[in-house]
From TrEMBL, chain A:
Family recorded in the similarity comment: Belongs to the SPT4 family.
InterPro entries per the UniProt record, alphabetical: RPABC4/Spt4, Spt4, Spt4/RpoE2_Znf, Spt4_sf
Gene3D superfamilies membership: 3.30.40.210
Coiled-coil annotated residue ranges, if any: none
Purpose of the protein: May regulate transcription elongation by RNA polymerase II. May enhance transcriptional pausing at sites proximal to the promoter, which may in turn facilitate the assembly of an elongation competent RNA polymerase II complex.
Leader peptide range in chain numbering: none
Protein name: Transcription elongation factor SPT4 homolog
Keyword line: Elongation factor, Metal-binding, Nucleus, Protein biosynthesis, Transcription, Zinc, Zinc-finger
UniProtKB/TrEMBL annotation, chain B:
Composition-biased stretches (Low complexity): 8-17
Organism taxonomic ancestry: Eukaryota, Viridiplantae, Streptophyta, Embryophyta, Tracheophyta
Domain NusG-like N-terminal: 147-236
GO biological process, one term: regulation of transcription by RNA polymerase II
GO molecular function: mRNA binding
Protein source organism: Brassica carinata
InterPro entries: KOW_Spt5_1 (IPR041973), NGN-domain (IPR005100), NGN-like_dom (IPR006645), NGN_dom_sf (IPR036735), NGN_Euk (IPR039385), Rib_uL2_dom2 (IPR014722), SPT5 (IPR039659)
Residues covered by region (Disordered): 1-34, 57-98
Residue stretches of biased makeup (Basic and acidic residues): 23-32
Single GO cellular component term: DSIF complex
Domain of life: Eukaryota
The protein's name: NusG-like N-terminal domain-containing protein
Protein backbone atom coordinates (compact mmCIF):
# COMPACT_ATOMS: atom_id res chain seq x y z
CA UNK A 1 0.00 0.00 0.00
CA UNK A 2 3.01 2.30 -0.02
CA UNK A 3 5.18 3.55 2.75
CA UNK A 4 3.82 4.98 5.95
CA UNK A 5 2.78 8.59 5.52
CA UNK A 6 4.45 11.36 7.42
CA UNK A 7 2.54 13.23 10.09
CA UNK A 8 0.00 15.61 8.65
CA UNK A 9 -0.20 19.13 10.10
CA UNK A 10 -3.16 19.64 12.36
CA UNK A 11 -3.16 23.42 12.31
CA UNK A 12 -2.48 25.99 9.67
CA UNK A 13 -1.10 28.95 11.52
CA UNK A 14 2.39 30.25 12.07
CA UNK A 15 3.52 27.04 13.65
CA UNK A 16 3.76 25.46 10.23
CA UNK A 17 7.33 24.88 9.13
CA UNK A 18 8.93 23.28 6.10
CA UNK A 19 12.06 21.15 6.21
CA UNK A 20 14.72 22.87 4.14
CA UNK A 21 16.02 19.67 2.63
CA UNK A 22 12.95 17.63 1.77
CA UNK A 23 10.34 20.38 2.04
CA UNK A 24 8.05 18.35 4.28
CA UNK A 25 5.53 20.57 6.05
CA UNK A 26 4.60 19.98 9.65
CA UNK A 27 4.09 22.04 12.78
CA UNK A 28 6.97 22.86 15.06
CA UNK A 29 5.56 20.53 17.68
CA UNK A 30 5.32 17.68 15.23
CA UNK A 31 8.95 18.11 14.23
CA UNK A 32 9.86 18.18 17.87
CA UNK A 33 8.01 14.97 18.62
CA UNK A 34 8.92 12.86 15.62
CA UNK A 35 11.63 14.67 13.70
CA UNK A 36 11.52 14.69 9.90
CA UNK A 37 10.48 11.36 8.41
CA UNK A 38 12.62 11.89 5.33
CA UNK A 39 15.64 13.33 7.09
CA UNK A 40 16.11 11.37 10.30
CA UNK A 41 19.79 12.26 10.36
CA UNK A 42 18.98 15.81 11.37
CA UNK A 43 17.75 14.35 14.68
CA UNK A 44 15.28 17.10 15.29
CA UNK A 45 13.53 15.12 17.98
CA UNK A 46 16.73 15.13 20.02
CA UNK A 47 18.02 18.62 19.38
CA UNK A 48 15.20 21.14 19.42
CA UNK A 49 17.40 23.99 18.34
CA UNK A 50 18.12 22.12 15.20
CA UNK A 51 14.47 22.46 14.22
CA UNK A 52 14.88 26.19 13.82
CA UNK A 53 18.07 25.64 11.86
CA UNK A 54 16.74 23.22 9.29
CA UNK A 55 13.10 24.29 8.93
CA UNK A 56 11.58 27.57 7.89
CA UNK A 57 8.18 29.20 8.18
CA UNK A 58 8.73 30.92 4.84
CA UNK A 59 7.42 28.75 2.09
CA UNK A 60 5.09 29.02 -0.82
CA UNK A 61 2.36 26.63 -1.94
CA UNK A 62 1.38 23.24 -0.52
CA UNK A 63 1.07 19.88 -2.21
CA UNK A 64 -0.38 16.84 -0.51
CA UNK A 65 1.17 13.73 -1.97
CA UNK A 66 -0.74 10.48 -1.45
CA UNK A 67 1.29 8.34 -3.80
CA UNK A 68 4.74 9.78 -4.47
CA UNK A 69 5.85 6.91 -6.66
CA UNK A 70 3.11 7.49 -9.20
CA UNK A 71 2.60 11.19 -8.99
CA UNK A 72 4.12 13.25 -11.78
CA UNK A 73 3.99 16.39 -9.67
CA UNK A 74 5.97 14.71 -6.89
CA UNK A 75 8.63 13.58 -9.31
CA UNK A 76 8.85 17.02 -10.86
CA UNK A 77 9.31 18.53 -7.43
CA UNK A 78 11.93 15.90 -6.62
CA UNK A 79 9.89 14.48 -3.76
CA UNK A 80 8.96 11.28 -5.55
CA UNK A 81 11.14 9.20 -3.25
CA UNK A 82 9.85 10.62 -0.02
CA UNK A 83 7.05 9.54 2.27
CA UNK A 84 3.46 10.52 1.51
CA UNK A 85 2.59 13.78 3.23
CA UNK A 86 2.25 17.51 2.80
CA UNK A 87 5.10 19.31 1.10
CA UNK A 88 5.71 22.83 -0.01
CA UNK A 89 6.43 23.86 -3.56
CA UNK A 90 9.26 26.21 -2.64
CA UNK A 91 11.22 27.30 0.41
CA UNK A 92 12.75 30.69 0.84
CA UNK A 93 16.29 29.94 1.86
CA UNK A 94 18.96 27.25 1.37
CA UNK A 95 20.34 24.98 4.07
CA UNK A 96 23.26 26.33 6.03
CA UNK A 97 26.70 25.10 5.00
CA UNK A 98 27.01 23.01 8.09
CA UNK A 99 23.76 21.21 7.36
CA UNK A 100 24.67 20.76 3.72
CA UNK A 101 27.81 19.07 4.90
CA UNK A 102 25.76 16.66 6.96
CA UNK A 103 23.74 15.85 3.85
CA UNK A 104 26.89 15.11 1.92
CA UNK A 105 28.21 12.87 4.64
CA UNK A 106 24.95 10.99 4.76
CA UNK A 107 25.01 10.70 0.98
CA UNK A 108 21.58 12.22 0.64
CA UNK A 109 20.64 14.54 -2.13
CA UNK A 110 20.08 18.20 -1.48
CA UNK A 111 19.07 20.71 -4.08
CA UNK A 112 19.13 24.36 -3.03
CA UNK A 113 16.09 26.44 -3.93
CA UNK A 114 16.24 28.35 -7.17
CA UNK A 115 16.45 32.07 -6.86
CA UNK A 116 13.97 33.66 -9.21
CA UNK B 1 54.84 13.14 -36.65
CA UNK B 2 57.98 14.71 -35.58
CA UNK B 3 57.46 16.21 -32.22
CA UNK B 4 61.05 16.84 -31.51
CA UNK B 5 61.42 14.38 -28.79
CA UNK B 6 58.52 15.43 -26.67
CA UNK B 7 55.93 13.06 -27.94
CA UNK B 8 56.40 9.43 -28.12
CA UNK B 9 59.58 9.18 -26.23
CA UNK B 10 58.14 10.22 -22.97
CA UNK B 11 57.30 6.80 -21.76
CA UNK B 12 60.60 5.47 -22.81
CA UNK B 13 63.65 5.87 -20.74
CA UNK B 14 66.01 8.74 -21.23
CA UNK B 15 64.11 11.00 -23.54
CA UNK B 16 65.53 14.37 -24.16
CA UNK B 17 62.82 16.03 -22.21
CA UNK B 18 62.49 13.26 -19.72
CA UNK B 19 65.82 13.81 -18.14
CA UNK B 20 64.98 17.37 -17.38
CA UNK B 21 62.14 16.45 -15.11
CA UNK B 22 62.40 15.12 -11.67
CA UNK B 23 61.39 11.55 -11.15
CA UNK B 24 57.70 11.06 -10.61
CA UNK B 25 55.05 13.34 -11.85
CA UNK B 26 53.18 15.51 -9.52
CA UNK B 27 49.67 14.44 -10.23
CA UNK B 28 47.10 17.10 -9.74
CA UNK B 29 43.77 16.30 -8.36
CA UNK B 30 41.89 18.37 -10.84
CA UNK B 31 42.12 15.79 -13.49
CA UNK B 32 43.65 14.77 -16.68
CA UNK B 33 44.25 16.63 -19.82
CA UNK B 34 42.51 15.21 -22.74
CA UNK B 35 43.68 15.33 -26.26
CA UNK B 36 40.23 15.24 -27.56
CA UNK B 37 40.98 15.58 -31.20
CA UNK B 38 44.30 13.93 -31.72
CA UNK B 39 45.48 10.46 -31.20
CA UNK B 40 47.07 10.46 -27.82
CA UNK B 41 50.77 10.26 -28.12
CA UNK B 42 52.89 7.81 -26.30
CA UNK B 43 51.56 6.07 -23.29
CA UNK B 44 48.40 8.12 -23.22
CA UNK B 45 46.76 6.19 -25.97
CA UNK B 46 46.49 3.34 -23.55
CA UNK B 47 45.21 5.51 -20.81
CA UNK B 48 41.50 5.48 -20.27
CA UNK B 49 40.21 8.89 -19.50
CA UNK B 50 36.84 10.36 -19.00
CA UNK B 51 35.47 12.37 -21.87
CA UNK B 52 34.17 15.13 -19.69
CA UNK B 53 36.27 17.87 -21.12
CA UNK B 54 34.29 20.58 -19.43
CA UNK B 55 35.00 19.16 -16.03
CA UNK B 56 38.67 19.64 -16.40
CA UNK B 57 38.49 23.35 -16.64
CA UNK B 58 37.92 24.32 -20.21
CA UNK B 59 39.59 23.12 -23.27
CA UNK B 60 40.41 23.99 -26.75
CA UNK B 61 42.23 22.26 -29.46
CA UNK B 62 45.28 24.25 -28.78
CA UNK B 63 45.57 22.98 -25.32
CA UNK B 64 46.04 19.52 -26.59
CA UNK B 65 49.44 20.52 -27.58
CA UNK B 66 51.89 18.54 -25.62
CA UNK B 67 54.43 21.25 -25.62
CA UNK B 68 52.23 23.51 -23.66
CA UNK B 69 51.85 20.94 -20.99
CA UNK B 70 55.50 21.00 -20.33
CA UNK B 71 55.69 24.69 -20.65
CA UNK B 72 52.90 25.25 -18.23
CA UNK B 73 53.86 23.04 -15.40
CA UNK B 74 53.95 25.68 -12.81
CA UNK B 75 54.84 23.80 -9.75
CA UNK B 76 57.94 22.31 -11.15
CA UNK B 77 60.04 25.35 -11.62
CA UNK B 78 63.16 23.36 -12.01
CA UNK B 79 61.80 21.81 -15.11
CA UNK B 80 63.34 23.52 -18.00
CA UNK B 81 60.98 23.70 -20.82
CA UNK B 82 62.71 22.81 -23.92
CA UNK B 83 62.57 25.91 -25.95
CA UNK B 84 62.55 24.03 -29.19
CA UNK B 85 58.85 23.89 -29.70
CA UNK B 86 57.82 26.73 -27.62
CA UNK B 87 54.71 28.05 -29.15
CA UNK B 88 54.80 31.24 -27.22
CA UNK B 89 51.44 32.76 -27.16
CA UNK B 90 49.66 29.60 -26.33
CA UNK B 91 50.70 29.65 -22.74
CA UNK B 92 47.72 29.00 -20.62
CA UNK B 93 47.20 30.21 -17.14
CA UNK B 94 45.50 27.08 -16.02
CA UNK B 95 47.97 24.37 -15.56
CA UNK B 96 45.50 21.97 -14.22
CA UNK B 97 46.48 19.11 -16.38
CA UNK B 98 49.19 16.57 -16.09
CA UNK B 99 50.12 13.37 -17.76
CA UNK B 100 49.69 10.45 -15.55
CA UNK B 101 52.86 8.53 -16.04
CA UNK B 102 51.72 5.53 -14.18
CA UNK B 103 55.03 3.86 -14.27
CA UNK B 104 56.74 6.84 -12.84
CA UNK B 105 54.24 8.03 -10.29
CA UNK B 106 55.09 7.97 -6.71
CA UNK B 107 53.04 5.52 -4.67
CA UNK B 108 52.47 7.96 -1.89
CA UNK B 109 51.36 10.63 -4.26
CA UNK B 110 49.00 8.24 -5.89
CA UNK B 111 47.49 7.20 -2.60
CA UNK B 112 47.10 10.75 -1.52
CA UNK B 113 45.43 11.66 -4.75
CA UNK B 114 42.99 8.80 -4.63
CA UNK B 115 42.12 9.55 -1.08
CA UNK B 116 41.44 13.13 -1.90
CA UNK B 117 39.32 12.18 -4.79
CA UNK B 118 37.09 9.76 -3.05
CA UNK B 119 36.71 11.28 0.33
CA UNK B 120 33.12 12.27 1.09
CA UNK B 121 32.26 15.72 -0.02
CA UNK B 122 34.68 15.93 -2.90
CA UNK B 123 33.10 16.77 -6.16
CA UNK B 124 34.94 14.14 -8.13
CA UNK B 125 32.64 11.23 -7.64
CA UNK B 126 29.32 11.49 -9.34
CA UNK B 127 26.65 8.91 -8.78
CA UNK B 128 24.44 7.66 -11.54
CA UNK B 129 21.44 8.91 -9.62
CA UNK B 130 22.78 12.45 -9.66
CA UNK B 131 23.15 12.48 -13.38
CA UNK B 132 19.73 11.06 -13.93
CA UNK B 133 18.16 13.67 -11.78
CA UNK B 134 19.94 16.58 -13.30
CA UNK B 135 19.56 15.35 -16.81
CA UNK B 136 15.88 15.04 -16.32
CA UNK B 137 16.27 18.67 -15.40
CA UNK B 138 12.97 19.10 -13.78
CA UNK B 139 12.21 22.32 -15.49
CA UNK B 140 12.13 20.67 -18.85
CA UNK B 141 10.11 17.66 -17.87
CA UNK B 142 6.58 17.95 -19.15
CA UNK B 143 4.09 15.26 -18.18
CA UNK B 144 3.66 12.62 -20.82
CA UNK B 145 0.73 10.48 -21.76
CA UNK B 146 1.85 7.95 -19.18
CA UNK B 147 1.51 10.46 -16.41
CA UNK B 148 -1.79 10.87 -14.65
CA UNK B 149 -3.94 13.81 -15.71
CA UNK B 150 -4.34 16.87 -13.55
CA UNK B 151 -7.79 18.25 -12.82
CA UNK B 152 -8.54 21.82 -11.93
CA UNK B 153 -11.31 21.97 -9.37
CA UNK B 154 -13.20 24.96 -8.11
CA UNK B 155 -12.71 25.68 -4.46
CA UNK B 156 -13.95 28.32 -2.02
CA UNK B 157 -11.60 31.30 -2.21
CA UNK B 158 -9.32 31.44 0.79
CA UNK B 159 -9.92 27.78 1.58
CA UNK B 160 -7.47 26.29 -0.89
CA UNK B 161 -4.80 25.53 1.69
CA UNK B 162 -7.38 24.11 4.04
CA UNK B 163 -8.77 21.84 1.32
CA UNK B 164 -5.33 20.52 0.45
CA UNK B 165 -4.66 19.55 4.06
CA UNK B 166 -8.17 18.19 4.41
CA UNK B 167 -7.72 15.78 1.53
CA UNK B 168 -4.46 14.56 2.99
CA UNK B 169 -6.15 13.91 6.32
CA UNK B 170 -8.91 12.05 4.52
CA UNK B 171 -6.33 9.90 2.78
CA UNK B 172 -4.62 9.00 6.04
CA UNK B 173 -7.86 8.22 7.84
CA UNK B 174 -9.19 6.05 5.03
CA UNK B 175 -5.88 4.27 4.88
CA UNK B 176 -6.26 3.31 8.52
CA UNK B 177 -9.52 1.59 7.83
CA UNK B 178 -8.19 -0.10 4.74
CA UNK B 179 -9.76 2.02 2.02
CA UNK B 180 -7.56 3.71 -0.48
CA UNK B 181 -8.17 7.21 -1.67
CA UNK B 182 -7.30 6.93 -5.30
CA UNK B 183 -6.05 10.39 -6.05
CA UNK B 184 -2.29 10.76 -6.34
CA UNK B 185 -1.74 14.28 -5.14
CA UNK B 186 -3.47 17.58 -4.64
CA UNK B 187 -1.93 21.03 -4.62
CA UNK B 188 -2.76 24.65 -4.78
CA UNK B 189 -0.88 27.57 -6.23
CA UNK B 190 -0.76 30.90 -4.46
CA UNK B 191 -1.52 33.05 -7.42
CA UNK B 192 -4.38 30.94 -8.78
CA UNK B 193 -7.08 31.68 -6.30
CA UNK B 194 -10.26 29.67 -5.98
CA UNK B 195 -8.87 26.45 -7.44
CA UNK B 196 -7.12 23.33 -6.32
CA UNK B 197 -5.42 20.84 -8.60
CA UNK B 198 -5.80 17.13 -8.20
CA UNK B 199 -3.71 14.49 -9.89
CA UNK B 200 -5.77 11.37 -10.52
CA UNK B 201 -6.23 8.71 -13.16
CA UNK B 202 -9.98 9.01 -13.42
CA UNK B 203 -12.54 11.73 -13.00
CA UNK B 204 -14.45 9.32 -10.79
CA UNK B 205 -11.54 9.19 -8.35
CA UNK B 206 -11.61 12.93 -8.00
CA UNK B 207 -15.35 12.96 -7.38
CA UNK B 208 -15.03 10.29 -4.74
CA UNK B 209 -12.25 12.13 -2.98
CA UNK B 210 -14.05 15.45 -2.90
CA UNK B 211 -17.37 13.97 -1.93
CA UNK B 212 -18.87 15.48 1.19
CA UNK B 213 -16.01 17.85 1.70
CA UNK B 214 -16.94 21.40 2.44
CA UNK B 215 -15.59 24.09 0.19
CA UNK B 216 -14.66 21.92 -2.79
CA UNK B 217 -17.01 22.12 -5.72
CA UNK B 218 -16.12 19.03 -7.66
CA UNK B 219 -18.93 19.40 -10.13
CA UNK B 220 -17.01 22.28 -11.63
CA UNK B 221 -13.99 20.35 -12.82
CA UNK B 222 -11.70 20.91 -15.77
CA UNK B 223 -8.84 18.98 -17.22
CA UNK B 224 -5.54 20.83 -17.15
CA UNK B 225 -3.50 20.76 -20.37
CA UNK B 226 -0.32 18.83 -19.78
CA UNK B 227 1.93 21.58 -21.00
CA UNK B 228 0.72 24.00 -18.35
CA UNK B 229 1.54 21.80 -15.42
CA UNK B 230 5.26 22.60 -15.01
CA UNK B 231 4.50 26.29 -15.19
CA UNK B 232 2.02 25.96 -12.34
CA UNK B 233 4.45 24.21 -10.11
CA UNK B 234 7.15 26.79 -10.67
CA UNK B 235 6.80 29.27 -7.91
CA UNK B 236 7.29 32.82 -9.00
CA UNK B 237 8.90 34.98 -6.44
CA UNK B 238 6.01 37.35 -6.27
CA UNK B 239 7.24 39.68 -3.58
CA UNK B 240 9.96 41.81 -4.98
CA UNK B 241 12.67 42.43 -2.48
CA UNK B 242 12.75 46.02 -1.54
CA UNK B 243 15.44 47.92 0.22
CA UNK B 244 15.63 50.54 2.90
CA UNK B 245 14.32 53.91 1.87
CA UNK B 246 11.58 52.56 -0.36
CA UNK B 247 8.26 54.32 -0.06
CA UNK B 248 5.08 52.42 0.65
CA UNK B 249 1.42 53.05 1.27
CA UNK B 250 -0.47 51.37 4.09
CA UNK B 251 -3.36 49.25 2.88
CA UNK B 252 -5.50 48.72 5.94
CA UNK B 253 -5.97 49.63 9.54
CA UNK B 254 -5.70 52.94 11.35
CA UNK B 255 -3.07 54.20 8.98
CA UNK B 256 -4.78 53.14 5.82
CA UNK B 257 -3.72 55.25 2.93
CA UNK B 258 -0.82 56.85 4.73
CA UNK B 259 2.61 57.13 3.24
CA UNK B 260 5.35 55.19 4.96
CA UNK B 261 9.04 54.63 4.41
CA UNK B 262 10.90 51.38 4.84
CA UNK B 263 13.55 51.57 7.51
CA UNK B 264 14.71 47.97 7.77
CA UNK B 265 13.90 44.73 6.02
CA UNK B 266 14.04 41.20 7.37
CA UNK B 267 13.71 38.79 4.48
CA UNK B 268 13.84 35.72 6.61
CA UNK B 269 10.92 36.86 8.67
CA UNK B 270 9.04 38.44 5.80
CA UNK B 271 8.74 41.64 7.74
CA UNK B 272 9.88 45.21 7.38
CA UNK B 273 10.19 48.09 9.80
CA UNK B 274 8.59 51.26 8.55
CA UNK B 275 8.18 54.78 9.77
CA UNK B 276 5.16 56.92 9.28
CA UNK B 277 3.50 59.97 10.72
CA UNK B 278 1.60 58.98 13.83
CA UNK B 279 -2.09 59.57 14.10
CA UNK B 280 -2.66 60.58 17.65
CA UNK B 281 -6.11 61.44 18.83
CA UNK B 282 -5.38 64.17 21.36
CA UNK B 283 -8.91 64.47 22.59
CA UNK B 284 -9.20 60.80 23.35
CA UNK B 285 -5.85 60.80 25.07
CA UNK B 286 -6.64 63.74 27.29
CA UNK B 287 -9.93 62.26 28.27
CA UNK B 288 -8.24 59.03 29.10
CA UNK B 289 -5.86 60.69 31.43
CA UNK B 290 -8.51 62.93 32.79
CA UNK B 291 -6.61 66.15 32.44
CA UNK B 292 -6.24 69.05 30.14
CA UNK B 293 -8.33 72.09 29.47
CA UNK B 294 -11.58 71.44 27.79
CA UNK B 295 -12.13 73.84 24.99
CA UNK B 296 -14.90 76.34 25.66
CA UNK B 297 -16.23 76.21 22.25
CA UNK B 298 -17.00 72.99 20.61
CA UNK B 299 -14.17 72.65 18.23
CA UNK B 300 -14.42 70.78 15.06
CA UNK B 301 -11.48 68.69 14.25
Amino acid sequence: MGSAPAQIPTSFGHELRACLRCRLVKTYDQFRDAGCENCPFFKMEEDHERIVEVTTPNFNGIISVMDPSRSWAARWLRIGKFAPGCYTLAVSEPLTEEMQHICQEERVQYVPPKRM
Amino acid sequence: MDRKGKGKQIAGAGSSSGKKRKGGVEFRDEGLRINSKRKKPGVLQFFEESAEVGYYGGSSDEECDMDDVFNDMEDEPEVETSGKDDKGGKGKGSSSFVFPKEEEMNEDDYDRMMEERYKPGSGFVRYAADDVKSSIEMDALVPTAHDPPIWKIKCAIGREKHSVFCLMHKFVELRKIGTKLKILSVFFVEHVKGFIFIEADKEQDVLEACMSLNGIYATRMMLLPKSEAPHLLTVQRKTKTFSEGTWARIKSGKYKGDLAQVVAVSDTRGKALIKLIPRIDIAALTQKYGGGVVAQKASES
